[in-house]
Specification:
The structure holds two protein chains of two kinds. Chain A is 77% helix and 0% strand. Chain A is mainly alpha-helical. In chain A, α5 crosses α6. The longest helix of chain A is centred in the last third of the chain and has 36 residues, at 171-206. Chain B contains eight helices and ten strands. A six-stranded mixed sheet of chain B has the order 6-7-8-3-9-10, sandwiched between helices. In chain B, α3 (104-117) crosses α4 (133-147) and α6 (191-197) crosses α8 (232-246). In chain B, α5 links the parallel β7 (151-155) and β8 (183-187). The chains are: A mainly alpha, B alpha/beta. At the A-B interface, α7 and α8 of A face β6 of B. The structure holds adenosine-5'-triphosphate (ATP) and magnesium ion. Chain B: Pfam families: ABC_tran. Chain B: Keywords: ATP-binding, Nucleotide-binding, Transport.
Chain lengths: 271, 255
């Protein structure tokens, strides 16, 4: 009963996706161009690239293990690092009017630099490609977290702070139980933005590396492997979608962020 | 306990308080009434150390208030901005108890008991957004009562609860005051209420506020919602306070 209902809702929502794919298939077959492969071809190539391993490894191929996972590892490491730094610095700055007054222009300058451009100087500084890639990701994705955390910590409602003062909450209690939860919607909006940014920067930074999805994309292009190129792009889309969905689920289960009903807390932030 | 001495305050060029004098003795319950917008909340915020007054001072046990005094609890007028929406009712009530050195269990029990007292025993796990305005206000009252402060400041705490609950809360306040010897300053716009709960009623003028009259309420204890309100003395006091609040448009001209 329940499963049927869910299936119907799923079908009601995704019929458009199915339709688009079918049209694409028909269009590509009609065009018959090698650089515009049909989705069936692309999916077959994707399977070959990433899911042709033995069942004992969940079908993950050697390429998946040696190209995909290290890249994703770098992405998560970079994102987590940037998140930690961004939240700590952002909240500290948001709570200090003086500090943010001086630092803010610097932040907006830093944010304005297109992160891919930093690959060149970072290669010179770090030499190792892993460090360069990490640095590019961290530098590129820290801004949304930092600026949102700052904005969130700065705009904590006076009423909350007055209450904290009147009941004599100590500094750490005020920070952990009042300021952070009050800023949480903004912080999460920043984290989410930066997660999708991290995926993009991961790929871009891998164009100079020797492994990863970006590198695979480059190889496929050099070999005129057009299903491979399209497959890589499709994979990135799927990854981005999955990451975002995962994020939403995780956010919903973070304690202390409930405030406006059973759904997601209101978000909306600055980049 | 509390002494407010010639307190004055202005927001920009808008004068709100103009030399307010006021005392609250140990264990005393003083009601403050005054027309809307006359500066009652500003007075309360100055006492709580949240507003730095332009002139005059606030003394608690003889010590001038610079920051928020210890051992003080406040029920704010705007309860929706004073309850933390990310915490359940019980967590909101229990939070200030951490600094009292109570164990987790003691805090939880105290929070439950306080919620029980304000008639919200069943709503401990509810979040503010799941509660009506009157319920939220009662959570804020429970939080202040559970804290057992030496001085309790309340800014129109019963404004959005129904008449019956209001009477229960008034009696609760009197009972808590008697058992824990709290000093209470209660701001209200309800003249009946100011007389019913008060040991004294302080009437303020329209802004910029000054004290028009400081009336002693010599009604017998324990007070009773029906019997007390029928007393001749009650009726007389209520009429007098009513006249003072409405009457005498501020004698600005005569100054
Ligand atoms: N932060 C503020 N900045 C500027 N003006 C303010 C501020 N707070 C209050 N006022 C003004 O000061 C005056 C007194 O405000 P206050 O809130 O103290 O009055 P009140 O007696 O509590 O009113 P009410 O009975 O409606 O609660 C009002 O005219 C109000 O507009
Ligand atoms: Mg007010």
């Amino acid at each position: 009963m329940k499963a049927a209902g869910r299936l119907r809702r799923f079908a009601g929502r995704f019929w458009l996706v199915v339709l688009v794919v079918l049209l694409w298939e028909a269009g590509a077959r009609a065009a018959g161009k090698i650089d515009f492969p049909a989705p069936s071809l692309i999916v077959a190539r994707m399977r070959e690239l990433w899911l042709s391993g033995p069942p004992s490894r969940l079908f993950l191929s050697d390429d998946t293990l040696s190209e995909l996972l290290p890249g994703l590892g770098r992405m998560f490491t970079g994102w987590l690092l940037a998140s930690l730094l961004g939240v700590v610095a952002g909240v500290a700055l948001g709570r200090s009017a003086v500090a943010s007054h001086y630092v803010e222009p610097l932040l907006h300058f830093g944010r304005a630099i297109p992160p891919p451009l930093l690959i060149t100087p970072f290669v010179l500084v770090f030499r190792s490609s892993t460090q360069t890639q990490l640095a590019v990701i961290v530098f590129g994705v820290i801004w949304p977290v930092l600026l949102n955390a700052m904005e969130g910590a700065r705009s904590v409602d006076r009423g909350y702070l007055d209450t904290a003062a009147v009941f004599g909450l100590r500094r750490h209690e005020r920070l952990l139980r009042v300021v952070l939860p009050a800023a949480a919607p903004k912080i999460f909006a920043g984290l989410r933005l930066s997660l999708s940014l991290a995926l993009i920067l991961m790929v871009i930074s891998e164009l100079v590396g020797s492994d990863g999805i970006g590198y695979q994309l480059l190889v496929a292009q050099r070999n005129f492997d057009s299903p491979g190129v399209w497959g890589t792009i499709l994979l990135l889309g799927v990854l981005g979608y999955a990451l975002n969905s995962l994020f939403v689920v995780v956010e919903r289960h973070v304690p202390g962020t409930r405030r406006s009903g059973p759904g997601r807390p209101e978000t909306g932030g600055v980049t | 306990m509390l002494k407010v001495d010639n307190l004055a305050h202005a927001y920009g060029s808008h004068h709100v308080l103009d030399g307010v004098d006021l005392t609250v003795g140990d264990g005393e319950l003083v009601s403050v009434v005054g027309p809307s917008g006359c500066g009652k909340s500003t007075l309360l915020r100055s006492i709580a150390g949240l507003v730095r007054p332009a002139a005059g001072q606030v003394l608690i046990n003889g010590v001038p208030v610079a920051q928020t005094p210890d051992d003080l609890a406040v029920v704010f007028q705007d309860y929706s901005r004073s309850l933390f929406p990310w915490m359940s009712a019980a967590a909101n009530v229990a939070l200030p108890l951490r600094r009292k050195g109570l164990s987790r269990r003691e805090r939880r029990d105290a929070a439950r008991a306080a919620l029980e007292q304000v008639g919200l025993g069943g709503a401990a796990g509810k979040y503010p957004f799941e509660m009506s305005g009157g319920m939220q206000q009662r959570v804020a009252i429970a939080r202040a009562l559970a804290f057992r402060p030496a001085l309790l400041l309340m800014d129109e705490p019963f404004a959005s609860v129904d008449a019956q609950t209001r009477e229960e809360l008034e009696d609760l306040l009197l009972a808590v005051r008697a058992t824990h010897n709290m000093s209470i300053l209660l701001i209200t716009h309800d003249i009946d209420e100011s007389v019913y709960v008060g040991d004294r009623v302080v009437v303020l003028t329209r802004a910029p506020a000054r004290v028009v009259q400081d009336l002693a309420v010599d009604l017998p204890f324990p007070r009773d919602q029906i019997a007390t309100r029928e007393l001749e003395a009650f009726v007389r006091l209520r009429a007098e306070v009513g006249k003072l609040v409405r009457g005498r448009p501020v004698d600005k001209e005569s100054q």
